[in-house]
Amino acid sequence: MSTMSHDTLFPLTTAKRLNNLGQAGRGEGVIARSIKLLSNRLEPHLQQTVQIPGQGEAGSYAHNRHKENARLIEGTGLLYQLTQNPVYAEFAGQWLLGYAKQYLHMDFHPQKNTNPPGRLFHQILNEQIWLLFASLGYGYIKETLPGEQRETIEQGLFYPMLHLFTETYRHDFDRIHNHGLWAVAAVGISALTVGEEKYVDLAVDGQAGDRESGGFLAQISRLFSPSGYYVEGPYYHRFAIHPLCLFAEALHLHRPELDIYNYKDRVIHKTIQALLATAYPNGDFPALNDASRTMNIQDEGVVTAVALGYSHYGHSDTLTAVAQRQGRIWLHPCAQTLAQQVDTLKEQQPIHWPSIELNEGPDGNRGAQGYLRLQNARGDLSQVTMNYGQHGMDHGHFDTLGITLFNRDQEVLREYGFGRWVNVESKFGGRYLPQNHSWARQTVAHNCVVVDQLCQNNAEADRADQVHGQPHFFIGQGNAQAMSAFANHHFRDIGMQRTALLISLPELDFPVLIDLYRLSSRQAHLYDYVLHYAGQIMQTNIDYSYDKEQRSLLGSNNGYQHLFQVAKGDVTNGLKLTWLQNKSFYTWLSASTAAELIFAQTGANDPEFNLRTENCLLLRKNAGDTLFASAFETHGHFDEASEYCAGATGALERIEVLGHTAQGSVVRLTGKDIHMTIMVSNAPGVTPKTQNIVEVENDTYHWQGFFAITDNNVAGV
């Protein structure tokens, strides 16, 4: 076996820098732990003979084995450079040779998908991911191989893949999408490994060479807004950021003239910051659009992004705290300084992400995502997320103006996420289920208002992609924070405005969420104000009837066909309902009158048990113009193990609508030692100097700016 010189250039770094990283990993600390994690994952496979399966659907043994093999090749190649143990290089080389001898003898995958098939996988995306990681591994061990073996690997495997992605599937290569990012990164990194500059040019500039219709530069220019937000949401953002970071680092090393880390006003820096800013306090990402409810900052793409951001955009206490929470670092030389900083920390550092509004669209003018964050006296962070941006392309859900609430380490007003059991072969091959369309994407599956039991934009993605929410105002500082937005093009002839306020009161242990959802129409409609929750209902102030013998369906389409009615009751003079979720109590107050509350549960029309059984509440009323005014209080503590319970009844008692017009909405909130009036401007174009007046019968309410709060010494804005 030949050995590499210490100045060997790889796609992402050099042999000398990797050797230094390996030396740093021989002591203690996060580098050593990260190398140990990689070694422990790879060691059980080192005695295996080369196993190259045939083809299988997503989630099958063959599918998962091919995925694992690419990561084995990459991981053993990297460990060879870090340790200089030839066993790792020999392993990677043998597996690459095995694939090179079989690849061109494999037919294209027979399974049809929206994505073209590869030879190894049912969709070309997986083949591109495979190429990226296998190419990295090959680069690390390339010079240890005899010339004829290199020729076999490159001509039998890498060049055919490069041709497949850029010629056979030429029409798909320039697609502006997370798939497109993986495509250009895979082609670019593989081309650097085999020394084929024309493919690097294609990956950077696109097929047309204009850097606008395709290629890496077009991808990062068009997929991310000026705020850095990714169009498909956090779940696919963390997926897309991985190839983005890998190829950016490759271009930084091999094409320094691009100055990639300053490209488009430092869009890479902004998108790293934006992704992290979407996370809940526990590190989970909100399940906006097609998304897993459990995806979090431990994802490999996020680990890579944190190290890269710290290295190229300046040291950050927040990034250090995130890396500490992750417990490992990206095994790349640019992570060394971050690792050294993490090793100096004695205790877990808090992660401080501020309240923030992230604009959407390439020019930042297609709505936004809002995140309000407010701590209580004990440091527990409440977070409210509201979606008033774009649809999210082919992974979008029909949930504009949808919200979530998170506190006490759990999501309270919840997202369902996608309809999918990833990599579970027995559940539709691990692919998206039919219920992803019939339930998970529907408006009723979100914390939204549904009009006439329909779906926003008739559940038509092409139509939804043409419209977006309209930001109204965002105030993210102080003890009273708020965000407001309009959505006037999602239900025909219906104007919608939602305002969420997060307010800290000395009488309450946690900030209270005030939710004002206003609908405007010249005609009466059936409105369903929908809330998704988890836990056990404790008490309510309304009488209801429980469907004890037979449960009926709530509808026949638009998601309602998947809901069983469990109970229902009339709401005549406001609503108060409390539920227990794990150790916390939550009380919902609604000002509604002449309404009906429906208790519902998922699972209807689901004979294969593809849906999770979850609970929701629908507050239903017939109206033209109306305002759903709600307050959500977090209170009390329950510990079943110690049989301890306190504060099961909240302090808030009632919320009332005093009036609402095109100019503003006024509500009153009362409770134990609490009596406050909240006034919110509904006027488009409102500024901090706007004078607002709402007249209701004999009362006139006047305030300046976006909103105002009286009585409880909470400063208005």
From TrEMBL:
GO terms for cellular component: periplasmic space. Residues 76-278 form the Alginate lyase domain. It is found in: Periplasm. InterPro entries: Alginate_lyase_dom, Chondroitin_lyas, Hepar_II_III_C. GO terms for molecular function: lyase activity. It comes from the Bacteria. It holds the Pfam family Alginate_lyase. Gene3D superfamilies: 2.70.98.70, Chondroitin AC/alginate lyase. Keywords: Lyase, Periplasm, Signal. Residues 369-616 form the Heparinase II/III-like C-terminal domain. The keyword Transmembrane does not apply. This is Alginate lyase family protein.
